[in-house]
Amino acid sequence: MVKTVFLISTVFLLSACATGPLRYDQQPEGQWQAKALIRNKKEGKSAVVGLDINAVQSQKLRMDVTAALGHPLASVVMDGDKLTYVLMETKQYYQGQASDSSLKPLLALQMNPRLLYNVLFDLPIEDKSWTCTKDNSGYLNECKNLADQTFIRWSERKGRRKLVRLENTTGMVQINVSGFQPKVEDRAQLFTLKPPKTFKPIRL
To answer: pLDDT tens-digit profile of 100-128?
Structure first.
């Protein structure tokens, strides 16, 4: 009996190791649970937040941001190139086209929000300003834009877990992915965002 249990445990562990890190680039959609360290280099401020992200590869994305104790801080929805998000503490509602500066009030980082698809799905950035490299196993390792000194680095892959660091001269965001489900639920309602009427609208 003891030998049987030992053999089953050994086979399970070997199977788990053999599967390796998840191939996110092969996932058409999914839901990510993560923690993020956000650092504003100019102001010398840092914060740790929770992230609940749902996305359909290169099409739609929703990211809900919460404080350490679960208090909602922001919600972001992107549909194609259309971006909307709300900031709960300042009661502001942003709406417009996704651009390099559109997420700066939220992340203190000048970065086109469409790059979040690359971050989540491990997709090389197909832009002549960027160069990307992969490791020996074919996983995306780094993408960099030397013109504006922006770097994205993937590391610490284990199963569904991974660490992604985005950084430039103005700020840094480090995303620690702890969980993933390969399906988006309630898609019809999820990718719409209706702010309270008391929130101040701001065009991006």
So the answer is: 999 988 887 888 999 999 999 999 999 99
> Which residue in the block uniquely carries the two structure tokens 């399906």?
183
Number of continuous H segments (helices) and E segments (strands) in the chain: 4, 12
Q: Could you tell me which CATH number the domain at 27-203 has? A: 2.50.20.10
Please choose, from the candidates 68, 71, 100, 72, the residue with its C-alpha nearest in 3D space to the C-alpha of residue 86: 72
**Cα–Cα distance for residue pair 87/200, rounded to 1 Å:** 10
Q: Is the pLDDT of residue 40 over 80?
A: yes
Distance from C-alpha of 89 to C-alpha of 73, rounded to nearest angstrom: 7
Q: Quick check: 175 and 36 in contact, CB under 8 A?
A: yes
| DSSP class per residue in 144-182 | EETTTTEEEEEEEEETTEEEEEEE-SSEEEEEEEEEEES
